[in-house]
Amino acid sequence: MQYGKDVAKILVTREEIQKRIAELADEINRDYKGKEYTLVVTLRGAVPFFADLFCKLTGNKVDCDFIAVSSYGATTESTGEVRMSKDLSSPIKGKHIIIVEDIIDTGITLSYLKKLFEAREPASVKVCSLLDKPSRREVEVEGDYVGFTIPNEFVIGYGLDYDQKYRNYPDICVLAPEVYGG
Ligand code: IMP
Ligand code: MG
Q1: Which ligand 1 atom sits nearest the alpha carbon of residue 150?
Q2: Among 105, 110, 152, 169, which is best to mutate for testing ligand 1, by the most ligand atoms less than 8 A from CB?
Q3: Is the pLDDT of residue 133 over 90?
Q4: Which of 4, 92, 138, 143 is most deeply packed, by most CB within 10 A?
Q5: Using CA atoms, how far apart are residues 72 and 132, in angstroms rounded to an integer?
Q6: Partners of 156 in beta bridges
Q7: Residue 3 within a domain
Q8: Is residue 25 part of a domain?
């Protein structure tokens, strides 16, 4: 795909993404061998990552469920406030869950999710995030499985959006600062 001037550069290519997802799947397959567990996916940004990861997991007891939360408006800065617009379909009490996220930025969303889920008494909670921007952290929270640690740049593509656009781009790209007046 040929990108226009909205893209400053490609940060992670589709090939690099797939290679890393295979490694993450190997780790999860090893750690959860013989276990029953559920991937809890955050809509909408984590969907492409989830889809590619899910089909690489082995065993016949891997389930998935979805939750929709948002903290961003049409800006590149977190509002600091998390809203849930769709809850999980099934209870997680007594279950092993892995939260699947697109990116950990300030950490506000992830810490909200961890608190929300822990109150429901699952057997365990782990976090698998495609991207991590540790330099932006405001709340102390970490991923157990992280695809790529990236610098402080606003990225789009492979599920990640700016103002609900660019999610369909196949690579992880740095958004041109002109787009958001940066
Ligand atoms: P946090 O609550 O600040 O950690 O932000 C988490 C959410 O913000 C992610 O799930 C994304 O939806 C969004 N986000 C954070 N950084 C970026 C970025 O660089 N590009 C696109 N979305 C981002
Ligand atoms: Mg988002």
Answers
A1: 19
A2: 105
A3: yes
A4: 143
A5: 17
A6: 173
A7: no
A8: yes
